[in-house]
């Protein structure tokens, strides 16, 4: 952004409240209220301003509105979601998320819009950590940009990947060239239900950060100056 710029497309620049209040939303998606295509277009325009390796800008998007298409994708999503849970014993602290995840799986066809985020190319079959990080690291910033833009407009979303267990089938359904394009995520998009609490609880960064080494606390207390 240019110095001094305070808005983009008539909306305030992202701030701390937006950055800390954009959470994964599943149960609190309003399945009855329509989502304006104009809002989706504006959010996608913000998504493409994300950084990418060598400025490749590999992102491509597919917006799904058609009820029958959403229902078909929902079938693949449910099968992928169930397969991912098969044989697992969830921890007590995971039960709430699993319950909301199941709600989304059961109601995916009712969500007003699905946005599939894709990347040009396929990750190499035996890629190094460097190449994989470069491939996915060049697309996920656009996903986050998109989620922030949606949240700024009162829309909720969550990053999902369960349908990728059937990526080829979904590619065939939507005409995505499977050998040339990789689906990396799908965002169900809807308005937030009235009264939705979007605050999130997180472990403080100080407990998760090492300075000049793994698990080494900062030498100076928070808020004090640091050497450059």
UniProtKB/TrEMBL annotation:
CDD domains: Nitro_FMN_reductase. Pfam families: Nitroreductase. It comes from the Bacteria. Keywords: Flavoprotein, FMN, Oxidoreductase. One of its GO terms (molecular function) is oxidoreductase activity. Residues 23-189 form the Nitroreductase domain. InterPro entries: Nitroreductase, Nitroreductase-like, Nitroreductase/BluB. SUPFAM superfamilies: FMN-dependent nitroreductase-like. The keyword Oxidoreductase applies. This is Nitroreductase.
